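User: Teach me something about this protein's shape.
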Amino acid sequence: MHNLIDFLQRHSHWLLFIFLEVISLVLLFQYNSYQGSVWFTSANTVAGKFDDWSASVESFFTLDKVNQELTQRNLYLEQQVKKLSDRLGDVSKDTTWTDTAGVRLLKSFRLIPAKVVSNSVSRPGNLITIDKGSADGVRKDMGVACGSGVVGIVYLTSPHYSIVIPAINTKSNISCSIHGRGYFGYLHWMGGDPQIAYVEEVPRHARFRLYDAIETSGFSSVFPPGILVGKVLHVYNSVDGVSYRLQVKLSTNFSRLRDVCVIDNAPVLERLNILRAAQDSLKTNTDK
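Assistant: First, the predicted structure itself:
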């Protein structure tokens, strides 16, 4: 307290000067219209700049959420574009297409947004770690995708993290089809360029063109049909000569991967479990 009093006494003339200046400015701007308008305009400009800066800061810290929402929305739009393209190419005059199972498929799975915590692109056994786990509903063998296409399949989970085997892992094996052609094969990555993979076992009688889109076939419980994988760059004969081998440029840029979605396709998993149970039952009865 003594120090405060001593400070006020030593600087009393400056404090009095500041007090009188404030009083004079208040009187000046309050009772003079021109000076008041100048003050009002300047104050609004400063306040506007501050609000703009505050909004920019807030926008920056919400970019993560925006990116997650965009990733999820892109997956939905990708599915919708595929269904619309298929219908536009159909010569039938069926006007009830919006109620078909293909479009209802969009509502049959849940997307769990996640962020890539760690990633590698230069190893044969590339792995991706995401920040969602069993506590968030992530389970083993769920598909993972991003706004530009397929990412991989969940391999291991903990309560808050999961390990994903990406398409650029030499052990990855994803069922794919050629868009609009009806032919399918299996996507494999041979190492090297993280943008190039191959679709194996495409039938010799298949008809397609270079740059045709490759997408998920939907023949497994991992991915619904129609999620983009890449486009055909080149066609080779298989080693045994009985099928084609397609070189594919992957649509997903794994070196810049950040926001992804885990696909919870519960209805398909349920149907698959029922089918497996039926097959096991039939096998047991046959063995007897």
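Now, about its shape. Confidence is low (pLDDT under 50) at residues 94-106. The CA atoms of residues 175 and 219 lie 7 Å apart. If you'd like, I can walk through any region in more detail.
User: That's plenty for now, thanks!
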